[in-house]
Amino acid sequence: MMLAEILCESSRHHDHLCPRQVLGVRMGLYAGELLGLQLPRADKRLLVITETDGCAVDGLSAATGCRVGNRTLRVMDFGKVAATFIDIHTETCIRIAPSVQARSLALAYSPSSTSRWDAMLSAYQSMPVMDLLAFQQVQLDTPLAQILSVPGKKVQCEVCGEEIMNEREVLKNEMILCRSCAGDGYYRYPVDSLSVEQLEQNG
Fold first, then answer.
1. What is the rounded CA–CA span in Å between residue 203 and residue 200?
2. What's the pTM value of the predicted model, to 2 decimals?
3. What is the CATH number of the domain that holds 139?
4. Domain encompassing residue 54
């Protein structure tokens, strides 16, 4: 697919086109070039770990074909427009982010733009990749097999009783626990929270 087609696809899902979507698209295409992979992909050979949610992710998905729903796109929100692209077959990992001078160079590449935002939107589409993006080969801290896990495998948490999929359970004191019950959750219950039975009675 040509850049214009991919940007159109990205904006269709995002309701408009913005600079970060363009960055996501260019990052995805550059990853395909560096890894020698044809994009967008219809299989699960490419895994993308993005370091932010939002606009850039729509661009990444449009360029690579990777999606959260098919488990080829993972979000680890570090608040950075950056992503690591992993070739599942070779386990080669490439991390790509905008170059530190990309934003300032955008003004030089699009001097007739009426605003900084417009300059970035225009320039990011035409800037040479070496001016726009920086890449490094990296190694994953977590083994790839553990990240991919075994899809469809299910167990039950021995504390809350909820189902845990894809080998995301934690074994603690010889008990199978979900991450929340193991103390690694992102929420907690207020002291005065109502049980399901109380909610049903009040409803």
1. 5
2. 0.88
3. 3.30.1330.130
4. 3-146
